[in-house]
Amino acid sequence: xxxxxxxxxxxxxxxxxxxxxxxxxxxxxxxxxxxxxxxxxxxxxxxxxxxxxxxxxxxxxxxxxxxxxxxxxxxxxxxxxxxxxxxxxxxxxxxxxxxxxxxxxxxxxxxxxxxxxxxxxxxxxxxxxxxxxxxxxxxxxxxxxxxxxxxxxxxxxxxxxxxxxxxxxxxxxxxxxxxxxxxxxxxxxxxxxxxxxxxxxxxxxxxxxxxxxxxxxxxxxxxxxxxxxxxxxxxxxxxxxxxxx
Length: 245
Ligand code: SAH
Hints:
The chain has helices at residues 26-35, 91-103, 124-138, 152-157, 177-182, 201-209, 225-239; strands at residues 9-11, 21-22, 43-47, 53-60, 66-74, 82-86, 108-113, 145-146, 150-151, 164-168, 175-176, 189-193, 213-217. It is α/β, with parallel strands linked by helices.
């Protein structure tokens, strides 16, 4: 069956199913009608993170824009069980990390405050909006949860040891990431990257002693925090994740 995928995609909270009516938010209506210039009868892709993607038709334009679901065009995708744990950095780079982690298929995003984390107040709701926008533009039906920030020590105290942590260790003393991942086994994983100031020595030491932590080196150069997150997620996805075809 060939179904054409709508070019415009929107994340909505509403249930999706045959004939269901969905009211877009005011911003979404503005986007559909004034920015994308869609009119009555035009198709829009809708997804809510649970019901796959539905082709919906715009039944009315203007202030009372409404969408009616026609048929499902994508199944709900269950992403690989990969979390990103990252130390927040400056606002624009933190936004970049959330956007790229979504595109790269992280299932959940957890900001982590480390000793040298030097970030302004975090707004998980704003970060979630970035994740939604990234999912809308990259054809994903899953939107990663952006969790409330946690301190690294508290996070590790409560950690489920069944989930392994790929620890991006900037001291360049660990094994190369690709080599370590080639020997690693499937299961729940998380990638951990530090702030611009790096991990404090006692933080790195604690991480290295934990049995579920796999410290790795991402090449011979020191990467910026945002680059390190993208690189580590890419390596994981290409060895253990859904880039393997
Ligand atoms: N200020 C630190 C660098 C921090 S880079 C220093 O000069 O040493 C920010 C984060 O990116 C690090 O905490 C680490 O998680 C990751 N990172 C950067 N380059 C890396 C590399 N070559 N290998 C592994 N992790 C790296």
